[in-house]
Write a structure and sequence with these properties.
With 309 residues, this protein is of the alpha/beta class. It contains eleven helices and nine strands. Bound molecules: phosphoric acid mono(formamide)ester (CP).
């Protein structure tokens, strides 16, 4: 297979296993290229991409922009804080105005779940979801699974626990879809107030004890508590959360086996993970960030190829 089955990248739910494997194979090639002295290729030379960020981002935004520059695309960057959104302009009007300047592809982060799906129904450009509220963050899940494959040789058959604020996490949902499509077993771990009631219907195991979850897994993906999405108190205090679900080096070493530690960022050091763990040899956190560029290059290259076919 040389083409994706989708026109947009709205969520991992829409992809099949072949799509994900094609993205990984393409990312392998781009990873080789970006480690060469001359990192730039002309693959998106005639493509204009708008990066529309209606919500804060460090990693995703920089990673997409770097990926676009490595592919020689023309780029326009937009952030809602400095735009006419603050004057009351709607999402559709904002995007239609930008697209009238002949933009081919839109990378969008938005606080509302489904914002990218909505946009894809109303405009012709290719849409890439860079995180929509509590819904999906597909390129994060792809780079996470790619990093597991790179570290452990394969994803199939691996046991992955996602720890923390599952209820508010788009990373968790996209990871669950992606890992299951690649044949991994997935568990979620956290306080019951932060685990959605429907989660077992997705074929995911649930564990409330972090030590038991670590004993079960090959990989632990530690999530931060998303205070900005919490309108009520889900646990007594961050200190209490950290005592029950914060990953420390003595705990990890006490398990007595190699566990790969991941985190999508941003990290709250000392809450869900200590600095000792985040900066240890167990951690592949910076490998995830590095792989994000190659994965995003692959996604944009393959979607642009679909535009031309
Ligand atoms: N992982 C992630 O989405 O990080 P940012 O919010 O910094 O983009």
């Amino acid at each position: 297979m040389t083409q994706l089955s989708v026109k947009h990248l709205l969520g991992i739910k829409d992809l099949n296993e072949q799509d994900i494997k094609l993205i990984f194979e393409t990312a392998d090639n781009f990873k080789t290229i970006i480690n060469r002295p001359i990192k730039k290729v002309p693959s998106l030379r005639d493509i204009t991409v708008a990066n529309l960020f209606f919500e804060n981002s460090t990693r995703t935004r920089v990673s997409f922009e770097l990926a676009q520059k490595r592919l020689s695309a023309d780029i326009v960057n937009f952030s809602s804080s400095s735009s006419s959104v603050s004057k009351g302009e709607t999402l559709i009007d904002t995007v239609k105005n930008i697209l009238s300047m002949k933009v081919d592809m839109v990378v969008m982060r938005h606080p509302s779940p489904g914002a990218c799906v909505f946009l894809a129904k109303h405009i012709d450009a290719t849409i890439i979801n860079a995180g929509d509220g509590t819904h999906e963050h597909p390129t994060q899940a792809l780079l996470d699974a790619y990093s597991i494959k790179e570290t452990l040789g394969e994803v199939t058959g691996k046991k992955v626990v996602i720890v923390g604020d599952i209820l508010h996490s788009r990373v968790a949902l996209s990871n669950i879809y992606c890992l299951q499509k690649l044949g991994a077993e997935v568990m979620v771990c956290g306080p019951s107030t932060l685990i959605p009631k429907y989660i077992e219907q997705l074929g995911v195991k649930v564990e409330h004890n972090l030590r038991k979850a670590l004993e079960w897994c090959d990989v632990a993906n530690m999530l931060r508590i998303q205070m900005e999405r919490q309108d009520i108190k889900y646990f007594p205090s961050l200190r209490e959360y950290s005592m029950q679900y914060g990953l420390t080096l003595p705990m990890l070493e006490g398990i007595g086996k190699d566990i790969t530690i991941m985190h999508p960022g941003p990290i709250n050091r000392g809450v869900e993970i200590t600095s000792e763990v985040a900066d240890s040899d167990y951690s592949i956190i910076l490998n995830q960030v590095e792989n994000g560029v190659a994965i995003r290059m692959a996604c944009m290259f393959l979607l642009a190829s679909n535009q031309n076919s």
